[in-house]
Specification:
With about 230 residues, the chain is α/β, with parallel strands linked by helices. It has 4 domains: about 40 residues, no CATH class; about 100 residues, Alpha-Beta Complex (Conserved hypothetical protein from pyrococcus furiosus pfu- 392566-001, ParB domain), CATH 3.90.1530.10; about 40 residues; about 35 residues, no CATH class. About 40% of the residues lie in helices and about 15% in strands. Strands 5-8-6-7 form a 4-stranded mixed beta sheet. A hairpin with a 2-residue loop joins strand 2 and strand 3. Helix 5 packs across helix 7. The longest helix is centred in the middle third of the chain and has 16 residues.
């Protein structure tokens, strides 16, 4: 069994306060010897789990609740947030709160989450969740671009989306970012999906004839009745 300490926090609606992190536990002698570590694992002892955020010596990011005035939008942000986009973000923040932090560098510049920041500011929030990134220079610029671009490369599974949309009420649909025109178009697309057609059923009858003359006579009689016939000689 492994264990790790997870930050927890308290706060006010929409924006929890600073995290409360459990103090580190002293490492046991079991922890310092590879052979002892293996034996401890086999015998069911507890020992600290390695970091899960990347490199073994990398500390997991800590979520902080900071004053909105302590961070600033990226002046070189290449993503534009129009009125429609900000309205959708605001609807999400009002309904669900801030479920993921924005990313801020050591200078307080927002590298991911500029739209969330602006929506929160317009809602009158005073604090916002952040995590700090050590990225600087070209790395920080490339990360900011990738944060936007990677989302654009995804595609909707329209069939699954239709099923999920159908289960939501009006308020939730608005908070999910869809307006009425988009919902109507989405539902219409689902109704107009082509239905696979089954091939038509054809009924035929093969009749044995005594000879060629009998075959010819029967053929002429049946075609005279308006039936479609084919002559077959085996």
């Amino acid at each position: 069994m492994f264990f790790a300490y997870i930050p927890a926090g308290t706060g006010f609606p929409g924006v929890p306060g600073p995290p409360i992190t459990a103090p580190p536990q002293p490492r046991s002698r079991v922890d310092r010897n590879p052979a002892a570590v293996f034996r401890a694992a086999v015998n069911g002892y507890l020992f600290p789990a390695p970091p899960i955020s990347g490199a073994m010596d990398e500390k997991p990011p800590v979520i902080l609740s900071v004053p909105l005035s302590s961070v600033q939008p990226d002046p070189a942000n290449v993503r534009r947030h129009g009125a429609r986009n900000l309205a959708a973000i605001q609807a999400s923040l009002r309904r669900f709160g801030q479920q993921k932090p924005i990313v801020v560098d050591e200078r307080g510049v927002i590298r991911a989450g500029n739209g969330t920041y602006e929506a929160a500011r317009q809602l009158g929030w005073t604090h916002i969740h952040i995590i700090r990134t050590p990225l600087t220079g070209p790395d920080a610029i490339a990360y900011a671009i990738a944060d936007n671009r990677t989302g654009e490369l995804a595609q909707w599974d329209e069939e699954a989306l239709n099923r999920q949309i159908a289960a939501l009420d009006g308020d939730l649909l608005s908070a999910a970012g869809f307006n009425q025109a988009e919902l109507a178009k989405l539902m219409e697309t689902g109704r107009n999906e082509p239905v696979e057609k089954m091939p038509p059923v054809i009924y035929e009858l093969a009749v044995g004839c005594a000879n060629e003359a009998d075959q010819k006579q029967l053929f002429e009689r049946l075609t005279g009745e308006g039936r479609t016939c084919r002559v077959l000689t085996i």
